[in-house]
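Hey, I was hoping to borrow your eyes for a little while. I'm sending you its amino acid sequence along with the backbone structure tokens. Take your time with it, there's no hurry, and the full record follows here.
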Amino acid sequence: MKYLYAVTLLFTITLSSAQELNLQQANALAKLPIKCLQQEYPNKLSQLLADASEIQSPKQLHPAFYGCFDWHSSVHGHWSLVYLLKRFPDIEGRDEIINKLKINLSKENIAQEVAYLNKKHEKSYERTYGWAWLLKLQHELDSFNEPFAKELAVNLQPLTNVLVERYIEFLPKLNYPARVGTHTSTAFGLNLAWDYAVYAKNLPLQKSIKDNALRLFKNDIDCPFAWEPSGTDFLSPCMEEIGIIQRVMPKPEFLKWLKDFAPDLFDKKFTWEPGMVSDRTDGHLVHLDGLNFSRTWNLYALVKQYPKELGHLKPLADTHFKHSLPAITDGNYEGEHWLASFALYAFEQRQDMLEKR
């Protein structure tokens, strides 16, 4: 219990003055994915069984991504550690982190992950939330100029290629977007994929995402901000949709679209209460901390690109960030197996915003 309090206190004290992620915070956040990366149980399998022969342990089914409770959380747990290694060469446990990454992301393990996703009855596995985080992991490894990272990027690429093909195949078939705050969110699934496509200069993926995002979302107006959050949202439906349109639409056109979609954001007195969690030991109710981080990273992105028109949203983003950052504690597996990744993504967007200003 003493350690639990220490981690909570760390973030309560430092966030109010920190302008960017520091080594002390990085060390605390890294402890969570380090611990769960090779923790097989408890585990939630999203498996479709074709027959009894497919009943296997999580590690047998997913030798790369069996830890951290479920496949997608394992994927973004790996991303978190690569992100932290890149930015903090002196992070505690560096050798342990690299060793775990090498073991999990071996060529052989990724080949088995590819084989699993290539089963005919698993074509929709982790669509598109897990897909998006896998592309973000590939993006992070590709942009990390260290020999071990380059090796792991090569190992991971075949799985990434499968998911790129799957995006391009799936998106034109999606007649209606999923405007939700959970795993099937169409907008969130496109946001990280777009960032990867741009970095990788993958023009077919860029075209597919842009064309389909505009087809699905361009005519939306008056997003019901007052309807957020639903009971177990961990993503903001309105803000994630803003995120993808901001990425694919030219600036003048985007601002016009945004004034129709979210006119309240232009009001300098606009307020929005963070999602309130009643019980952080409940794996679904704690989702609302994720929703606060989702709002945070999208608000920072708006402030970064439109400081004149939307710079007043920075305090609102900070409020959401400060509200949920203290909730990332070591000792409650319901939140600790995934929330560090969400916090780091919010930190990433905050730093991008500060560097731009």
